[in-house]
Each structure stands twice: as structure tokens, then as C-alpha cells.
Amino acid sequence: MAVMRKGPWTEQEDLQLVCFVGLFGDRRWDFIAKVSGLNRTGKSCRLRWVNYLHPGLKRGRITPQEERLILELHSRWGNRWSRIARRLPGRTDNEIKNYWRTHTRKKAQERKKKAAAAAPVSPSSPSSSLTDNSGASLREPPAEEVAADGALELNCSVGCCSSSSDSSVTTAFGEIYDHSDAVFKGYSMDQLWNDISMPDMATGLSFEEFKDEASDIACPAMPSPLWDYCSYSLWKMDDEDFQA
DNA sequence: AAGAATTCCAACCGCGCACTA
DNA sequence: CTAGTGCGCGGTTGGAATTCT
């Protein structure tokens, strides 16, 4: 058994992953990991996709508005990062978590300094800073933050996969795309999956042949409805969250 | 200018939950 | 009912980039 690759992703790997997620959707990560030929675990693929390659991701720094929202939601839900992330379209739990970490650490340090300056002894609980959101005096973000609007930047850096043979590829996988589309018209994912894993169904190729074909082809541009679906589904509001 | 400190961010790990056979 | 499997979540780490001294 080959040893799984770890560490930073290469551009080539990104391309491959984007390609296969485009084909199979952002589920079944173990399957994608295997089929794509990426020597990565499904887990690793999912992480890379969710945190970096997803087309709906916003690039750039956390804006003051987002910062306020994070504070508010964290006071409500604590470290439920994924839940908080759902309230911030384009932001990932990882991003928010990272932000919060540096932010609170900084605040804790400031508080320590203040406490040390004001009083020689401070018996207050040390961990309270984590859930403390009284932070009205937050770090003033640099002006450039406001310009943070990198959504879909990915399409240029990675997602466009500008293949010279786009059209031929699209026809080769056209059926698959049609099936992806069907998911949104009432197909269940499982139905789709059955179709895909059945030899000779979608592409006329056996699965192994299809796999080879796919790994040979520079990824087509991804105009698939999957993109829309992904960017919608990942960030869509979750009604029950607001009821809490 | 250089080294130290801090911040940012990508990635990994372990755990728990949900689903399925 | 239970064991196996896959996925998602939260915590943590480590390196690159940036800022400070």
C-alpha cells in the first residue's frame, strides 16, 4: 500500500481535486481520493476543498462587520465554529477559528498587561477570556480590509483549469454533468452515484477506463451547476440556527 | 539591516456522530 | 442490535509572512 501524501498541496493536486469534485460532487471523499489518483486521504481532500478550493470562498481579511458577527455568535454558541461559519458566507470554520485564536490570544495578553499594571494580584479565572466577548475595543483593522472581496477568485487561480481541449472534454463528460444537474432536479445523490459507478452508463466507458480518461485530461472549465449548488449549499442559511 | 516576536493560515489529528449492512 | 465506515467538527501544530525592536 502506498504511503499517503501529506503536507502542502501542489497546484497540480488542486487542479485534480477541483476536477473530480466537479464530476462527483463534494461528498464521498474517500471515493474521490481513490479515483482521482491523488495520493491523499479523503479527509485531506475534503479539508482542502472546504478550506481553500471551494468557489464560494471569500478571500481577504475579516471585515469589521464580520468581526462583530463572530463576537456575537461566539458569545451565543461558544466554539461552534462550523455553525458560526454558516452565518458568514464565504468564511470557513477554520478561518474563523484561526482568527478567533489570534484575536483572543492578543486580547488575553493585553488584559494581562493591564491587570499587571493596575493591580499586583488578579485572581480572576484565566480561561474566561476565551468566552469573553466584551471586546468593544477590538483591533482596528487596516483600511485595506474593506476591499476584501475575493469571491470566485479561485476561478482564475485554480478553477478555470484552462484546458486547451475544453470542448472535447466537456463532451466526454457531458453525460456526467447532465447527471449532476439532475441532482438538483430531484435525482437523489445515490441514484446519481449508482449511475456513475455502473460501467458503461454515463460515458460509455468502464469505470476503470473512465478513471484513466479522467486522470489524463486537463480539467475542463467548471461551468457545472455543481458550482452553483456548492456555493449555495455550503453557505445557505440554516433556519434552526437562528431559533436558538 | 538584522534578529525577534507576532500574526496568519494551511494542514493534520483525534473524537464523536450518523448511516448502513 | 451491533460493528464498520465515512464524514464533520474542534483542537492543535508548524511554517511563512509580516511587524516590531
TrEMBL record:
Low complexity bias spans: 116-129
Predominant location category: nucleus
Superkingdom of the organism of origin: Eukaryota
Gene Ontology cellular-component annotations: nucleus
Transmembrane segments: none
Annotated HTH myb-type domain residues: 1-57, 58-108
One Pfam family named in its UniProt record: Myb_DNA-binding
Presence of the UniProt keyword Iron in the record: no
Subcellular location: Nucleus
Keyword Transferase: no
Segments forming domain Myb-like: 1-53, 54-104
Record Gene3D superfamilies: Homeodomain-like
Gene Ontology terms for molecular function: DNA-binding transcription factor activity; sequence-specific DNA binding
Residue numbers spanned by region Disordered: 101-144
Keywords: DNA-binding, Nucleus, Repeat, Transcription, Transcription regulation
Biased composition (Basic residues): 101-115
Record's function text: Transcription factor.
Protein name, per record: Uncharacterized protein
